[in-house]
Design goal:
single chain; about 210 residues; alpha+beta; Glucose Permease (Domain IIA); 3 helices; about 40% strand
């Protein structure tokens, strides 16, 4: 049976668990309580639950858990094309494992070092540290950006150019608060609005043209 914890969390979880036990063994109650609370928080942060993936033609699922904070039309410099951008903000209590919004081949992957602005700000989409994936299925192209925030300082991406991913498959995570942007063709039909809460892999963002 799969343990619903992202493996990237164990370097944080195991030391905190051991520290809690050691402090409790020496009867350092308050210190053990603080370490225990940190242990529980990190364990909760790195949870990785299974999701029911929709099975519909042309469906686009959310790449992340969180809240839709921006929907706009803009030209992305990475592609030089105009897309519809949907930005999803993840707070520290959301699941931070990211999933591909569409099935397809990873055509390109690019990491851009940058700033650590508040991920809620619109400038974060351009200025912050980010990892960019271009997913291609036939002639359809969808762009996904993992964007670091004020607290997030580590973007993890397992996807490599040439890899084929199924709809809703896990491709990475961002540690401790962040944002994920998805860029869809302008002709796509959207099923979300600003303020909506979404779940990675299961919430429907919209449908491709």
């Amino acid at each position: 049976m799969r343990i619903p914890i992202a493996k990237e969390g164990y370097p944080f979880i195991l030391p905190l668990g051991l520290l809690t036990l050691v402090l409790a063994f020496f009867d350092l109650v308050w210190a053990a309580a603080v370490a225990g609370l940190l242990f529980l928080f990190v364990l909760y942060f790195f949870r990785d639950p299974e999701r029911e993936i929709p099975n519909e033609p042309k469906v686009v699922v959310s790449p992340a858990d969180g809240k839709v904070v921006v929907i706009t039309t803009e030209e992305d410099p990475f592609m030089g094309k105009t897309f519809t951008r949907i930005s999803i903000f993840l707070n520290v209590f959301n699941v931070h494992v990211n999933r591909v919004p569409v099935a397809g081949v990873i055509a390109e992957s690019r990491y851009n070092p940058g700033k650590f602005l508040n991920a809620m700000k619109d400038k974060a989409s351009m200025d912050n540290e980010q990892n960019i994936l271009l997913i291609r299925d036939g002639e359809t192209e969808v762009l996904v950006k993992q964007i670091a925030g004020l607290i997030a300082r580590r973007i993890v991406c397992w996807a490599k150019p040439g890899d084929r991913y199924e709809l809703g498959q896990r491709f990475g995570l961002i540690r401790f608060g962040s944002r994920v942007d998805i860029f869809l063709p302008q002709e796509s039909t959207l099923k979300v609005a600003v303020g909506d809460k979404v779940a990675g892999g299961s919430s429907i963002i919209g449908y491709l043209p």
